[in-house]
Amino acid sequence: MIQARMIQEWKTLAGTPIPEVAGRLSVALAPDCARFSLRVRPDDRAALDAPLGIALPDRIGGVAVGAGGHALCLGPDEWSLLLPAEAAAGLGERLGAAVTVPFSLVDVGHREVGIAVSGPAATLALSSLCALDLDAMPAGSATRTILDRAQAVLIKHDAEQYRIEVWQSFADHVWTLLEVVSREIALDL
Amino acid sequence: MSDARVIDTGDTPARPSAATAPAIGRGLRVPGRGRNAAAAPVRFTFDGRTITGRAGDTLAAALLADGIHLVGRSFKYHRPRGILSAGSEEPNALVGTDRGDGRYEPNTRATTAEIFEGFRASSQNRWPSLRHDVGAVNDSLYMLFSAGFYYKTFMWPKSFWNTVYEPLIRGAAGLGAPPTERDPDSYAARHAHCDLLVVGAGAAGLAAALAGARGGAKVILVDEQAEAGGWLLSEPEVTIDGRTAWTWLADTLRTLAAMPNVTVLNRTTAIGYYHQNFVGLCQRLTDHLAQVPEGAPRERLWKVRAKQVVLAQGAIEKPLVFAGNDRPGVMLAGAARTYLNRYGVRVGDRAVVVTAHDAAWAAAFDLARAGTTVPLIVDIRPVVGGDLLAQARSLGIETLCGGTVTDTRGRLRVSAVRVNPVDAAGRAGGGRWVACDALLMSGGWTPSLHLFSHTGGKLVWDEADQVFLPGRATEACRCAGAGTGRFGLAAALADGAAAGAAAAVDAGHPAETPAFAVQGEGSMAGTACRDLPTDRNGAFAKAFVDFQNDVLAKDIRLAVREGFRSVEHIKRYTTNGMATDQGKTSNINGLQIAADALGRAAPSVGLTTFRPPYTPTTFGAFAGYNRGRLFEVTRRTPIDAWAAERGAVYEPVSLWRRARYFPQPGEDMHAAVARECRAVRAGVGLFDASTLGKIEIVGPDAATFMNRMYTNAWTKLEPGRCRYGLLLGEDGFIRDDGVIGRMAPDRFHVTTTTGGAARVLTTMEDYLQTEWPDLNVWLTSTTEQWAVIAVQGPSARAVIEPLVEGIDLAPGRFPHMAVAEGRICGVPTRLFRVSFTGELGFEVNVPSRYGRAVWEAIHEAGRAHGIVPYGTETMHVLRAEKGYIIVGQDTDGTLTPADAGLDWAIGKAKPDFVGKRSLARPDMHRPDRKQLVGLLTQDPNVVLEEGAQIVAERDGPIPRTMIGHVTSAYWSEALGRSIALAVVAGGKSLQGRTVYVPMPDAVHAATVGGTAFLDPENTRLAV
Fold first, then answer.
1. Which CATH architecture has domain A26-186?
2. Averaged pLDDT, B946-964
3. Which residue, among B522, B516, B524, has the nearest Cα to B240 in the 3D structure?
4. What's the mean per-residue pLDDT of chain B?
5. Of B348, B597, B646, B755, which has fewest CB within 10 angstroms of its CB?
6. Count of Cβ atoms closer than 10 Å to residue B649 Cβ
7. pTM, two decimal places
8. ipTM for the complex?
């Protein structure tokens, strides 16, 4: 019945690496992960912490680490979960069995592409795409923003390490722009 | 005219002797003088002639060092023009610059363009050559070209305006020629945030940056010139804190460079000041480089959000207005001083000075000491400081206080100036001619208020100095230095330091105000004047106010005589201040003359509004990265690349590009679409529907929410079933539609139109947050989570059945409008049995990264069944044959469900849904509303034009009443004829009637019918 061939995952940006700017800037595909959009009323949030294995941050922009991944608070009732694949399997069923509060868990693992931007010039590179004051953005925070013309989620791990989460079809635009900006930074003009 | 001649007979004509004739190109560069005294020689060309300048020169400096003043022709009269200024305010010296490889730019200011080895510049607005220009005939005809001449001269006959006059005027207008090649350069952009943005790195700006940065504030200091320093660069003898100006400047820049919280940007113009301290900066990165690094951007647009702004833009020297003040060789005294001290260039061998301000005396003294003969200083003021007179005497310079200048001579360069005394009553006496090769003028200084004015900050008139000054600010901004009318270096440093410190404190940082001790500074006293007194008839004087637009003092007076009172009207009638320099040197002179003519005070006449950008800015800078591939986001599906490999022709649908059809060799669109249609109807076709908007609606109240949003009833829809959903606006008109599957009691998989995806989600979110916050339901966009592969046609089941696991596709088990979760090709799928073609159909949803592989697998499996990939055009034809609407094509925001024949989709028993109340309005039930119908042309081969209007009668008076229009029209391969959908007033009652569609070739008759052209009983779906 089933075709014997292996199903290959098609990746938006694979095959178009951006040359590293030695010691200053690196732009690369972030390691893939499972992704969920989790919605729950703020008052019910804490009920999910234990079954998730992550204390969901209660401040918008907050990033919590746990279960081998991250939970980003993007809105008053909205969290984005970036988890290792094994933590993701059957998550909806497990949560549903563990809690009685109403919530919404939607698999968006294939919706987005992760792009890692790192190095001392990472903030400078992103300032060509993003209108936010990235120096003022706390380390260990995340925000939904616009990169040039593409909606994305920007995670700042620290002053030299960022991760962009952008929808598949917008990823090429962001990636191409980062490629241009990398060249510009390499020229140091 | 005769009046003037009589007086002229008493004049002494000047005939420059050999001794005083300018020795062109020799000895104008003063050895050891200038910032770039030791710089390497640089060769460039001007109008094809090779000239050697020095690295660091502006084009103007290098030309002047070569004895060249004549660089262009004026806009209207084609008068020879030279270099007026030494900065971005230059109205005259506009040239074409060519940096090679198609990098041509017209109207570059020679005073700001930096030369480099191989740089090429050319003069503009002349033919056949700069020295002999045919257009100069306009100069003799100047009485024809008075203010508003085009409103008067070209009025009759009326029909000539469009056909003769306007093309002629447009042809003659403009200075440089636009570039003919595509701009090969790239442009960059960057956002920045700071505590303090300082605009202008002259004395005031440097002091502000120092004072602001020492307490830790993040400071950005920008200057439009190639190096920071402003006027300090032109006045090197001054000492600051015991150091010469240039030493102090170097020390200060070093201090700033060492501070990590300070960014200094040269060649960066603050072009506009917008709301909430948002300032646009244009940084020129490579225009000055002989070797541009591969891929380097030409300019970068900085978008700066500053907590505080200090505007230290300085002041611009005003020309004096007198007859012949535009000849090459006539220039601003301050500019002459800049060329001497900064570039080591004497602007002439014999320079007369005419001034209303002390500053020009210093220019005269500097030039005299550098070897230029200064025969005469004419000061408009009857009395000037004794020390100035003494210095002039010691340098052997004759002085005339209480004098005027009434004319100049010299065809391509000033050769003599006519000088007259002025009596106590302000009347000019008889003139005498003084030979010269340069005439330096100064009418005082105009504070630069442009950026302050962008903010809407109020300007106040200073009666004493006759200048506008910044008043109350509307933004978090301060002005400092000459831009506030506090002239001189000591004042600028003190003012800048105070402003910088105060701004830093307001931005939350500690600051102290440093003090500076300045010595050796010249005096900055002067008077303001309008056009200079003359003994001749002013009505004939070519006394220029706006050099670039060729506006004469008499034009402004004429405008006033013709009834113009407001400065805004005078500006538009005369075009004063409307050129690319935006009146930087002409606005105040124009205002003074208008005020004088009106007999009113200057402030009551007012100042025209300054608008961004401060100086001309390239389109490239504004476009930034958004050109070529990055012009706009192009969204591609995971299957897009497969289609590209097979030569698909694309069409844009919102930001997506979608495969429109897949032409085989030799096929046009018609043939390809016909083949694709046949394949789907007879066998099976494959369609990429990934762009469909998808929203996952989850929560215990999901069904309640769906009931309120959509017209349909959802409560009774079982999990595992789908329904066509119709979404209205509050007005009752159709907004969107799509198939919606119920995956679980608390989970719906909603699809929307491709273009409507974001709009539908935000509309839903809006209702949820503002109307029904009590509902426990959440919306998540899953458009890009799923790749959607539509498999349509009688063989569709046979193709996918072997690939699917866990779903029984047997007709009885998985009927039309069923949905199930299972696996296909080993990956998870949400499989919908739906059809937008009228055939047996499936929409295979798989996580998007599997989309291409599953598509390929289905395509492979379908080979045995003759599977054909098809595009959006075929999809459109197939759905039109079934009468399925496309929202936005067959609807236009004024169609109700009933108008579109979709009233079956309304859950009539529901208490409410968005738009329900509007549907009850009587107007919504009028029988003559435009309603969707099918049209069949009487000639089956005629495909109507989409958008064509429809009339009830073939013949009749024009204009005839238009009763509707065609919304969709195609060739139907299945029916072997054309079909069309249309909205027609009262269409439902016109069934079987003939209507007419006038098109360019003929009026076509068509019969009104139903919208389902093919298989109206839907038998083909039930297989």
1. 2-Layer Sandwich (3.30)
2. 93
3. B516
4. 93
5. B646
6. 15
7. 0.92
8. 0.96
